[in-house]
Amino acid sequence: MKIMLNNRKEEFSVTTLTVSEMLEIKKFSFRMRIIKINGVLIPRDKYETTVIREGDDVRMLYLMSGG
Amino acid sequence: MRFSEIEIHLGKFRVGIAGAGGLGSNCAVSLARCGVGTLVIADFDVVETPNLNRQYYFIDQAGMLKTDALRENIARINPAVKVISYNFKLDKSNIPDVFIGCDVIVEAFDSTDMKEMLIETVQLRMPEIPVIIGSGLAGWGHNETIRSRKIDDTLYVCGDESTTADDKMPPMAPRVSIVANMQANTVIEILMKK
C-alpha cells in the first residue's frame, strides 16, 4: 500500500499495518511522539489497534523535553 | 494595519497557556504586549532562582506561585490584559474545564509526558482548538535549526525537534525565548486570520 508519511510518499509491501507495526518497520524508536492519521490524533494506547490503510495521511512529530 | 487596530482585534480573544516556565512565561509576556484580551495560565509550581536563567520572573519573586508572579508581571506591562490563572497540576480530567472557550492553546511544559498528555487531551476532547507545541530548545547556538512547522490546521510545532534538555544541555534564555516567541508569533498569526 501507499501512504503519505509526513508529506512524503511511502510504500509498504502489505495492505494494512497497525501504527505499532509501521513504527517498527520504519525503525522509529524514539518513544515520545505525536501521531495523527487523516487529521485525527492516535493516542499511545491505541497504537496496537489502529490500522493504517492505503492512501492514509500519517503525520508524526517528536516531543523533546525542556520548556 | 496600524498597531492600534491590531490591538483592538487581538483584545477579543482568549489564549490558554499550559505551563508558566520558560516557554509559558515568555510567551505570555509577548502575547500581553500585543494586547491579547485574556490569558488563561495554568501552573502549580513556584518561582525558584535557578529558573531565572530563562523564565520571565525576578529575583524578588522567588517563592511566589508562578501564576501569581506572572499575573503581577503582565499587569506591569499591560494592565488591559485579563489573566485567569489556575495553580494546580493539569491532567486529562481538568484540561477541558480550564481551557474551555480558548481560541488557541500554547503547550509550554517541560516534561515530554506532560506535553503528550496535554496534546492528546486537547486534540481528542477539544479538537477544534489549535495547539502550539514547543519541542526542542535546549542548549545554545544553532539558530538555523530552530523552526516552526504546521502539522495541520489544529497542530503547530516550534523548536528544533531534536535536542533534549538535561544537565549537560540545559534550557537557557536565548533558545527558550526564541521558541516561546515563535509560539506567540504563531498564536498571533492564527488570531489575525479570525
Cα gyration radius of chain A (Å): 12 Å
Give the helix proportion of chain A (percent range): 10-25%
What is CATH's topology name of chain A?
Ubiquitin-like (UB roll)
Helix % of chain B is 25-40%
CATH top level of chain B is Alpha Beta
**Helix-strand topology string of chain A:** EEEHEEEE
Low-confidence stretches of chain B: none
Biggest sheet record of chain B:
7 strands, mixed
> What is the subunit arrangement here?
heterodimer
Can you walk through the features of this model?
Chain A has 67 residues and is mainly β. Chain A is 10% helix and 40% strand. Chain A has 1 helix and 7 strands, in the order βββαββββ. Chain A has one helix spanning 19-25; strands at residues 2-5, 8-11, 16-18, 33-37, 40-41, 51-53, 57-62. In chain A, strands 2-1-7-4-5 form a 5-stranded mixed sheet, with no helix packed on it. A two-stranded antiparallel sheet of chain A has the order 3-6. The longest helix of chain A is centred in the first third of the chain and has 7 residues, at 19-25. Chain B has one domain (3-192): 3-Layer(aba) Sandwich (Rossmann fold), CATH 3.40.50.720. In chain B, a hairpin with a 2-residue loop joins strand 6 and strand 7. In chain B, helix 2 (22-34) runs parallel beside helix 3 (66-77) and helix 2 crosses helix 6. The longest helix of chain B has 20 residues, at 173-192. The two termini of chain B are 15 Å apart. Chains A and B meet through strand 7 of A and helix 2, helix 5, strand 6 and strand 7 of B.
